Amino acid sequence: DCSMGNSKYEYVKNFEADDRLPPSNWIVVRIHGCDFHSFSSIHEFEKPNDSNAASLMNSCASSLLEKFPEIVFAYGVSDEYSFVLSEESEFCERQASEIVSSFVSYFGSAYVMKWKEFLPDKDLKEVPYFKGRAVCCPKAKIVRDYLACRQFDCHVNNQYNTCFWMLIKSGKTETEAQLCLKDTQEKEKNEMLFQQFGINYDKLPEMFKKGSCVFRNKVEEIVKLDEGGNPVKMSYEIVTVDHVDIIGPRFWDEHPYILH
Ligand code: ATP
Ligand code: ATP
């Protein structure tokens, strides 16, 4: 140990940067897959949305909530996931690089471990890897707005990608498809899907339109009846994946304990 007896080497410790995030801030760690454009094509993900690959991402995120109780909420779409840590969390003494690297490595390892469970017919041919960053939010309202922003992006991207891949599947080149979609409004894209391809955008799976939310749901169960015949309840939390709107107030009103 180089700290013993104040060795001449000990000064090197001063070169370690302290990157503690400020206290009383919510911490959002956003991770995303690197080179997933190529990763998804090598592994022949269904386009625009491979539901097995998306379920694999969701399962990895759930395992993070199981492993790290201080994650209160997660939101994911495509190859990205955001994890919210409670404002008073002392996880990794709030050192940004340690928090981010723990989440990134846990997620990547879970992705590899669970691959066969979700994509049993496909060999893992490349090493999936992720990177991440931490964002500080001084108010719960900012966390909500951050999440709303991700979900809004999910909608915009999904609508674009659904049109884009339908055009490709109908024989257009990438350049032609991009040109068809250039400067189109939301309504025009919906009409294109409906008129050219018979797709009602509203009827597409919620997972792709809204992305995935992972959180602890409070569940109450009657375990027995007491002597007076009254139910004795036990409440516990289960990590749940849902594809719900988090832009409006409803979800947050129904789950006030998440971003208290
Ligand atoms: P970078 O390394 O800079 O992040 P990238 O190659 O990962 O770039 P992104 O812009 O992050 O590219 O895009 C992610 C890619 O992964 C997109 O091409 C997207 O279609 C693909 N992808 C991710 N999840 C899925 C999925 N479930 N089904 C199909 N494709 C997916
Ligand atoms: P933290 O999560 O805080 O980093 P830790 O459980 O990883 O804690 P460390 O203080 O980092 O603990 O110590 C690493 C542990 O791993 C030590 O107990 C060390 O003996 C053990 N270890 C690491 N490499 C080997 C190895 N090749 N063979 C046997 N033991 C090892």
UniProtKB/TrEMBL annotation:
Cofactor(s) demanded: Mg(2+)
GO molecular function: GTP binding; magnesium ion binding; tRNA guanylyltransferase activity
Domain of life: Eukaryota
The keyword GTP-binding is annotated on this UniProt entry: yes
Subcellular localization: Nucleus
Domain tRNAHis guanylyltransferase catalytic residue range list: 9-138
Reaction(s) this enzyme catalyzes, per UniProt: a 5'-end ribonucleotide-tRNA(His) + GTP + ATP + H2O = a 5'-end phospho-guanosine-ribonucleotide-tRNA(His) + AMP + 2 diphosphate + H(+)
Keywords: GTP-binding, Magnesium, Metal-binding, Nucleotide-binding, Nucleotidyltransferase, Nucleus, Transferase, tRNA processing
EC number: 2.7.7.79
Predominant cellular place of this UniProt entry's protein: nucleus
GO term, biological process aspect, one: tRNA modification
GO cellular component: nucleoplasm
Hydrolase keyword on record: no
Family assignment from sequence similarity: Belongs to the tRNA(His) guanylyltransferase family.
Function: Adds a GMP to the 5'-end of tRNA(His) after transcription and RNase P cleavage.
Protein name: tRNA(His) guanylyltransferase
Source organism of this protein record: Rhynchospora tenuis
Lineage start: Eukaryota, Viridiplantae, Streptophyta, Embryophyta, Tracheophyta
Parent sequence residues shown: 182 to 441 of 443
